[in-house]
Amino acid sequence: MTRIPRSFVDLSSQQFSTAPGLGRGLSTGIAVLVGALLVLAVSGTARAQDKKMKKMLMQLQEMNQADGYLEAHRDVENPPELLGGPISFTVQQNSGGVFVGLPDKRELDSDVFGTPDMPLAFTGTPGMTGVPVPFRETENGEFTQLDRNTPFGNKSTAMPNGTMMLKAADVTATDAAATEDEVTFKASWEDAEGNTYAVRCCEMLATAGPEFPTFGGVVTNHLLHGFSGVGTPLMPTEYTYAAFWGMGAVLKNGEVVDKPRIVHGMLTEYVRTEGYELASDSEVTPTRKHFHLMVAPFMPVQGEHKFEHDNVSTGFTLPNGKELPFWHVMFENLDIDSERGE
């Protein structure tokens, strides 16, 4: 904080002490002036810090490590197919509940985020691709947790009547200007009051990623998140049997409440632990599977290769009276089918 010189304050209080009536008025005036100067100094410092922070975040976006690779693929009109041919698959849940992630501070895994002396995973749009070091809390020379809430943490709530259907094909191997990948997705669940929430996708696939690869919109048999550089590192590194990215819609009680939104879904190995806490990399369970639906509070910036923060209109009210700004929904009662070939 910028400090007002102590000599200035002392001088104002002593100079007018000999005339009580006049002194009180002038002293009050000086006090108000000093207070105003303090406010200006603090606000000026805050503006300078805000400007510095914005500059830092822009630099982190420009430092995104995937930029070169993505640039080489964005304009490819005839991308190659998967080695061995296309994979078609369906993933569905016909009954049972879902787990809905709530805002929480994510514990930071040193295997993914490094240490304060040698940090990792900090470039790209904060929260979407990387986590800036100033956003991380530290203790005893280690990162402990994020200093703000995100969709990725230990807090969740169970909701009934969860159903989903994903029917997709992974044909195109890489990011490109065009794709032969296909996705039809729909999911719904209810809250305790009987309101129905739903997500539909995909009117258009993300054939090329702004900050990390999307493999034509659908990817199969790949590592995502964590240290992989594909998606947010706030999720643990997880073997992903199938995933997609595309533009879809968010609904409440059959009415569209937000559109278009980026919708990301993935069938992965199990990344929850006792108490349904979000695992670190060493706590992942390779022998179980579950499906994650994410409608993140970010949108791509038109004409630029980056994201910006943009809360989702979910229509679901949190206990504090605020609207849940994202959907992070997990399905576990799954039927899975897949086949190689057209």
Task: Explain how this protein is built.
This protein is an alpha+beta fold and 342 residues long. It is 19% helix and 35% strand. The protein is built from four helices and 18 strands. The strands form four sheets. Strands 1, 2, 7, 8, 9, 10, 11, 12, 13, 14, 17 and 18 form a twelve-stranded antiparallel β-sheet that branches. Strands 3-4 form a two-stranded antiparallel ribbon. Strands 5-6 form a two-stranded antiparallel ribbon. The longest helix has 43 residues, at 20-62. The radius of gyration is 25 Å and the shape is globular. It starts with 5 loop residues before the first helix and ends with a strand.
Which features would summarize this protein structure in a list?
342 residues, alpha+beta, twelve-stranded antiparallel beta sheet, two-stranded antiparallel ribbon, 4 helices, disordered N terminus
Brief summary:
The protein has helices at 6-15, 20-62, 67-73, 110-113; strands at 87-93, 98-101, 114-115, 118-119, 136-139, 142-146, 156-159, 163-170, 182-190, 196-205, 218-224, 238-252, 255-270, 285-295, 298-300, 307-309, 327-331, 335-340.
Write the layout of secondary structure elements.
Layout (H helix, E strand, L loop, with lengths): L5 H10 L4 H43 L4 H7 L13 E7 L4 E4 L8 H4 E2 L2 E2 L16 E4 L2 E5 L9 E4 L3 E8 L11 E9 L5 E10 L12 E7 L13 E15 L2 E16 L14 E11 L2 E3 L6 E3 L17 E5 L3 E6 L2
Antiparallel strand pairs: 1-8, 1-18, 2-7, 2-17, 3-4, 5-6, 8-9, 9-10, 10-12, 11-12, 12-13, 13-14, 14-17, 15-16
Helix pairs in contact: 1-2
